[in-house]
Amino acid sequence: MPAKSRSVRERLYAKPHRLSQQGFCNFVGIAKIPYRTGDMCCQMGAFSIAKPVMPMSPPVSFYYHTNKRSVSGHPLVFLHGSGRTESDSADFLAQLSLHTEAVFIRGQHSQTPGYTFVRRNDDLSLDYDEIAGDAKDLAGFLVHLTLQNPNWQKPPVLIGYSSGAIMAAAILWHYRDLIAGAVLLRPQSPSMERPAPLKGLPVLMLSGLWDERRDADASLHLEIQLEQARAKVTHVTLRTGHGEAEDGSDFSVTKRWLEETFSIR
């Protein structure tokens, strides 16, 4: 099969092979990330890059940390909610009690008392164009993480809460080949348009029955968009508001879904 017809996921997680300079450009082009090839030669677990000749533009930088666990399956990438930090995501993983590698990324926009992945307009509506641009930056950083972690033999699973769920959904919309699936807690659609075909990509949605920060039909609208794009959607409405459910069902449902869908334990 010609290289240009293969998906980003196929090229990241196929057996080791070498990419020519043109092949590397094609790979980045499919990911829709405006990089230039760099004067470097690196041997990665997923593939090796032949020595290009032009200087490389680095990805947009995100502050993050990792739990440093070894991974044999899918790593988890956490995106926190508005006004929070990556430490909140680490607390969520601790509640899941999963023994897998995880990366906790900080949102790129300041929002007191922390950060956010998505900024809203003055009327609290979403700026879909800015979300798409921010998703491009995050997608570039996910590619960077994959290249820096040759032990990642399988694509990551995104877990996003609130604004992090909106950004995770934006990755589904525009860069679905970079991930294996997503958990969206208290999500909202990142676009008025339906995403490109998702080809059975598994998605868990956890909405709140009394969510005071979402329109009543927000989760149903997103579910319909994802199902029309042929995602494999599991939508659970919890007896809670926008915050985590007091009965711990955010953790128990997420943990069971990750175990059943990706054998993450």
Written description of the protein model:
With 265 residues, the protein is of the alpha/beta class. Helix content is 33%, strand content 18%. The protein has helices spanning 8-13, 21-31, 86-96, 128-148, 163-175, 218-228, 249-262, and strands at 18-19, 42-43, 48-49, 64-66, 76-79, 102-105, 109-111, 114-116, 157-161, 181-185, 202-208, 232-238. The strands form three sheets. Strands 4-6-5-9-10-11-12 form a seven-stranded mixed sheet, sandwiched between helices. Strand 5, helix 3 and strand 6 form a beta-alpha-beta unit. Helix 4 crosses helix 5. The model is unreliable at 1-57 (pLDDT under 50).
Task: Write a brief structural summary.
With 265 residues, the protein is α/β, with parallel strands linked by helices. The protein is built from 7 helices and 12 strands.
Distance between the termini: 35 Å
What share of the residues does DSSP label as strand, in percent?
15-25%
Please compute the radius of gyration using only Cα atoms.
Answer: 18 Å
**Considering DSSP H and I runs of 4 or more, what fraction of the residues is helical?**
25-40%
